[in-house]
Design brief:
Length: 765
């Protein structure tokens, strides 16, 4: 089988994902059909009769293959005549609509647009091409019907590279195509990020394959009968089916499979009599629509409908269209899955006839939109569409949180929850976003009654990146981020994010204390966060809020704490002076007149480290260790590392205002305690990842400054308090601080780790 990476391509086919906007919530290709829709009538016979074929009689000397060839030519002639007849209505200058039979032919909206454009091109050139290299760009969502489509083709009838077609509806440009010429180029490929974003499905299923009977159920909107009860939408089941008629089966290879580590699927299709690149593209759309349903993307929109993705151009390369009629296999590498601006799936698709590559589609995408005029903002739980896995209604859900992180805040909070200012309080985005849904409606926006508890949820992925990169155990970063994000979002939802609407406003965590109550395996589980507003304090240019919170699995809490968030205007945030009232107080080791005799330098890059990948916070750090140093005389470690503007967390925390999360600085201190224990021989390399946060120990942190991309250097130190055995387990406690460019900005007390080997064995089994 040919390697899909070696397929031909052209530079013109390379699109961008920069423009994620769309114009109007129009829809087409119904998946959730309207009740009472009429089934389209079949088209009448061709307008012009085809040439008669000579029948094959027993005893004829004419070879049967010649007759088959004549039949094929006859079919081709019929198609050409139909295209020519259709083109007469849509030629440049005619300005007349498509004939009624074409409008009622049963073609789905996207395919009707493509066929209209191709018919206009056929009329211009006088023939149906047998090789296609073109780029299709969708400018707007398609209208709810194809009445009034108008297409025109321009260019030279002899120069394929100078041909284009456009299709309009009521004066709006819907789609256009540009032909390409020249020798096929080697596929340029896409740049694969070092850490591809991981999309977590909105519902979980064990189904990895769907067949014809499943596709029929999906076409009727009965996803819950295929993938499981959590995939159903409330309301009556639609009466009229839409179609996945071009597919025989779809098989899914996993969320991290494929060339881009975003997923891979295989679909089989039989284009049949309508074989051509347009029907091939329709089959690819249908396969991606099935994938979108399997991810649960339909669950966050009212009456969702599928449209072609207009975020990037689609490249089509079909060297020989005559090979598209038989059974074909579509191999789709998912490029991206996301919820902003609306739920979408984009893929690169290779089309195979057995072992032979027959086509390649680059940047094929499908997107779900709500019905026209439908509200997509938060809803009172009594009228919500989205429910938890336990059947409870939600106030906000994954679509709202995705927009809160990097989209339209009007979607998150409603039209009244926006500001013309560029910077507003947002949660982290991408893989750092660790809250999914809010079940509790705010008391009343702009009012902050203390004692009110807000409930939110976060679905921990089965293959969460922070578990993989922390040796299989949950890092303290997870506990910190999911709890303080839930608190900050609750504060924003109640209206704190709308204070000072005429100024840029941001949020920062200032301090807190928290305790892990018990060790738990979180993979594939849903964390429920209960956040209670304890105090609301308005100040000039800022608002402070204190929260108490619990993280729960089921009915049992496993993490509990309090924290303070500040909502700051830019002038107030700029007044942060660090932990020492603006004074530059150096680390403990650098305050010694002479280095301690036991001090030594460590080569952290030459040995094992507690984390890897994004969680390798000690990468590139120089280290100085004093086994009997520090304020408690029990041990000391100082690490120094540069700040890089492209450090991964800056791109995810926050939109328009990148800052190093405080949780990353705290996690670095946890890792430094582990490194101290390893390099002083207290633990072996095999026990490095067995060290986990110690249940029952209250961690306390204070942040009085921020680390930004333009800063040059971060320093961190830990002072060991003690290392001892408790109930047969190794327990280590320490305090720590973090500096940026000489200014101490974080102080952390009671960092506590234990060697819980039994727990880790249970997690990794």
């Amino acid at each position: 089988m040919p390697d899909p990476r070696n397929l031909p391509d052209s530079p013109e086919q390379a699109g961008t994902m920069d423009d994620l906007g769309f114009d109007g919530p129009h829809f087409v290709t119904p998946w959730w059909p309207e009740a009472g829709q009429d089934v389209p009538a079949a088209p009448p016979a061709p307008l012009l009769p085809p040439p008669r074929a000579t029948p094959h009689r027993p005893g004829d000397t004419t070879d049967l293959t010649d007759e088959i060839a004549r039949l094929a030519r006859t079919a081709h002639h019929v198609m050409l005549q139909a295209h020519q007849a259709l083109g007469e209505w849509i030629l440049e200058g005619t300005s007349r609509p498509l004939p009624t039979w074409a409008e009622d032919s049963g073609l789905p909206g996207p395919l009707a647009v493509l066929e209209a454009g191709e018919a206009a091109l056929t009329q211009l050139t006088g023939h149906v091409p047998t090789a296609v290299r073109t780029t299709v760009t969708w400018h707007h969502d398609l209208p709810p019907h194809t009445t009034g489509l108008r297409a025109r083709a321009t260019g030279s009838g002899t120069d394929p590279g100078a041909r284009t077609w456009t299709v309009h509806h009521e004066g709006r440009l819907i789609a256009e195509a540009d032909c390409t010429t020249g020798p096929p180029a080697q596929e340029p490929g896409r740049a694969l990020p070092e850490y591809p974003r991981r999309f977590t499905p909105l519902a979980r299923t064990t189904r990895s394959r769907v067949d014809v009977s499943d596709l029929a159920l999906l076409a009727e909107g009965r996803a819950a009968e295929v993938f499981g009860p959590s995939f159903g939408l409330p309301g009556d089941r639609p009466a009229e089916p839409a179609g996945f008629r071009l597919l025989d089966a779809v098989t899914f290879s996993g969320l991290r499979a494929g060339r881009y580590r975003q997923g891979h699927l295989t679909a089989t299709t039989r284009p049949g009599a309508r074989a051509g690149w347009t029907s091939l593209l329709e089959a690819a759309w249908q396969a991606l629509q099935v994938h979108a349903l399997r991810l649960g993307l339909h669950l966050c929109l009212p009456a969702p409908r599928f449209h072609p993705w207009n975020g990037e151009a689609t490249g089509i390369d079909v060297p020989d269209t005559t090979r598209l009629g038989g059974p074909l296999t579509l191999e789709a590498d998912i490029v991206s899955v996301g919820l902003v601006p609306r739920p979408h799936v984009v893929a690169d698709v290779c089309v195979l006839d057995g072992p032979h590559l027959v086509a390649r589609l680059h940047g094929v995408g499908t997107v779900l939109r709500e019905e026209p005029g439908a509200a997509v903002g938060p809803r009172d739980p009594a009228h919500t569409l989205r429910h938890t896995t336990g059947g409870e209604p939600t106030y906000t859900h994954e679509l709202h949180l995705a927009h809160a992180a990097e989209g339209d805040l009007g979607v998150t909070y409603g039209p009244s929850g926006t500001s013309s200012q560029r910077i507003r309080p947002r949660p982290p985005r991408g893989d750092l976003l660790m809250v999914d849904r809010m079940l509790t409606a705010p008391y009343r926006q702009g009012e902050y009654p203390t004692g009110v508890t807000y409930t939110t949820e976060y679905d921990v992925p089965d293959d969460a990146w922070y578990l993989e990169e922390n040796g299989g155990t949950a890092p303290n970063l997870l506990y910190l981020e999911t709890s303080i994000q839930a608190a900050a979002f609750a504060g924003g939802a109640t209206g704190a994010g709308l204070e000072y609407p005429r100024e840029n406003l941001t949020t920062r965590n200032l301090e807190g204390q928290a305790c892990l109550l018990r060790a738990v395996d979180l993979r594939g589980r849903t964390i429920r966060q209960h956040t209670t507003l304890l105090a609301h304090t308005p100040l000039p240019g800022s608002v402070l809020q204190r929260y108490g919170y619990e993280l729960m699995l089921g009915d049992e809490a496993f993490y509990r704490g309090q924290t303070v968030h500040g909502f700051f205007t830019e002038p107030v945030l700029a007044q942060q002076q660090g932990m020492d009232a603006g004074r530059l107080v150096p680390p403990w080791l650098h305050r010694r007149e002479t280095p301690p005799a036991t001090a030594r330098t460590l080569d952290l890059d030459g040995g094992p480290r507690p984390g890897h990948g994004r969680l390798d916070f000690l990468a590139g750090a120089s280290a100085e260790l004093v086994p009997d140093g520090g304020t408690h005389g029990a041990g000391y470690l100082l690490c120094t590392k540069p700040v890089h503007a492209d450090d991964w967390y800056f791109a995810q925390h926050f939109l328009h205002e990148p800052v190093m999360p405080g949780s990353c600085g705290v996690e670095m201190l946890f890792q430094m305690v582990k490194a101290f224990l390893f390099h002083t021989g207290v633990i072996t390399e095999g026990r490095l990842h067995a060290l986990t946060p110690h249940p029952g120990a209250e961690l306390r942190w204070t942040y009085r400054g921020q680390i930004l991309p333009h800063h040059r250097q971060v320093q961190a130190e830990v002072h060991l308090r003690d290392v001892r055995r408790e109930a047969g387990r190794l327990v280590a406690r320490a305090d720590g601080s973090v500096w940026r460019d000489g200014l101490r900005v974080y102080a952390v007390e009671n960092i506590a780790l234990q060697d819980d080997s039994d727990y880790r064995t249970r997690v990794t089994a």
